[in-house]
Write the structure tokens for this entry.
Amino acid sequence: MTVLSPGSTRTDLVRNVVVALLAIAQVVVAAVAGGALGAVAREYPSPLLAAGWAFAVWLPIYVGFLGYAAFQALPGQRARYVHRATGWWMAASAVFNIGFVLSFGAGWLPLAQLMLIGLLVTITLVFGRYCRIPAEGVVERVVARGTVALYAGWVSMATPMGTAATGVWIGLPGTGALAAIAAVVVLLAVTATVSWAVLSGTAVVPFAVGAVWAIVGIALNDPPAGVVVAGAIAIVVVLGATARRISTAGFPVRAAWG
């Protein structure tokens, strides 16, 4: 049964419109200003920098976000508790993403890192709230749960990538033994956190896909050998956690897809 709060209100309509406008705005900003991000990232290389092709993950994220924005604005969806509990946080995630694209593209890496942390907090908060509320059908699983889970998995790994670039920006070494050791430690630590999220969450398949895609992008971007090994371990751990979560869940479909 769809969970409704009593009656659709003007606040619901305002939230729907704000989410939709910001969903469109972040796509426009990415299209106009996103091209500079790769060049800036290559100016501050680190062992955690992912290969350029890995950032193609933003295409399904943006398309899914647009689908979510349309879905949550449908008359039958506006008053649902799940959208009231997450809609403004989704709007905030779009604001942080726009801020990240603009600040990183301009070379203001410390500000970009703050934007990225804000994006991580908001999108993982939505992911966590979704984990407590079952999805209502396939469409919601695809455009809402799947999009957010993929997004959260990717950003969970993209945040340490951004942190490493910011470290190089402020003068920390981006190459050499110290940088490689730090990258291995960070990669394994983040993997532990991601695996915990998989073992306790729902829609874990798209979440794991986002995280593993980022790890593969790092491991195949010619990092030090230690980072490649750590990446291989991370992939096995995340995939193992995903398989365990689904195989031991009382409702495997919900565990896998939300």
Observations:
- The CA atoms of residues 68 and 166 lie 32 Å apart.
